[in-house]
Amino acid sequence: MLINVIFFKSEWKNSFNVDYSYIDKFHKKSGSDVEVEFTKQNGFVGVFDDEKNRFQALCLDFKFNDLVGLFVQFSKDKTVHGLISILQFADLKNCVDLIHCINLKVSIPKFKIQSMSSVNEILYHMGVTEIFDDLRCNLQNISNQPLKVDDIVHSSTVEIDEKGVVASAATAVRVNCKAFVKRSGFILDSPLLFIILDRQTNLPLFMNAIHDPTQL
């Protein structure tokens, strides 16, 4: 078994006040609601509105200047998995490059998400097939024994609260910003995608779909 581990821990650049936490409803895609603990603050944050009306994004800075937390909330006619399948590299880049920095009331759900999934099918679609084949697999740089890969499993954990984010992971198109949408607040009370993004490379370090913050 080969294990590659990544660990990330950082406080928000502007931490939320624990005294402002409150209980409210999170609206699931099924139409039902669950009670979730939210944390809120008033301050300057980055907001991006997709010109195709597929999603809007809230951008919160970490104390590490090169990393940002993106909370991507979808339009009502889109599902989380539906949008993930069409989300492009340029979309993530624009979320950071074309944000509007404005003073808003922000509410985000507190959650801890743990997920585990096989990535074999994803690799197949990317053309990575030899490592799963008895005859073609060549892992001589790892071992002198005849080896092949049976399964590759990715496990990730992300926890968000007032102070910041703890995340860990282990692995065994140009879009222009439309006119700014006026709003008084950014309330993340429906399914969303949370991404930790590296500003320098515009690559996601972690990505989790949040359908129900109460379900680990």
Write a structural description.
The chain has a single domain (9-113, 160-210), classed as Alpha-1-antitrypsin, domain 1, CATH 2.30.39.10. It has 3 helices and 12 strands, in the order βββββααββαβββββ. It has helices at 80-84, 89-97, 120-125, and strands spanning 4-11, 22-27, 33-49, 55-61, 67-74, 100-109, 111-118, 153-160, 164-171, 185-187, 192-198, 203-210. The strands form 2 sheets. Strands 2, 3, 4, 5, 6, 10, 11 and 12 form an 8-stranded mixed sheet that branches. The longest helix has 9 residues, at 89-97. The chain is elongated and about 60 Å long. Residues 173-181 have low confidence and may be disordered.
Mean pLDDT: 72
In which range does the helix fraction lie?
A: under 10%
The proportion of strand residues reads over 45%
Q: What would CATH call the class? A: Mainly Beta
Q: Let me know the CATH homologous superfamily.
A: Alpha-1-antitrypsin, domain 1
Low confidence ranges: 173-181
How many strands in all?
A: 12
Number of domains: 1
Q: What about the largest sheet? A: 8 strands, mixed
Rg measurement, Å:
19 Å
The coarse silhouette is: elongated
SSE sequence, one letter per element: EEEEEHHEEHEEEEE
Structural class: mainly beta
Distance between the termini: 26 Å
Distinct helical segment count: 3
CATH architecture level-2 label: Roll
The CATH topology, please?
A: Alpha-1-antitrypsin, domain 1
GO cellular component, one term: extracellular space
Pfam families: Serpin
Protein name: Serine proteinase inhibitor A3K
Family: Belongs to the serpin family.
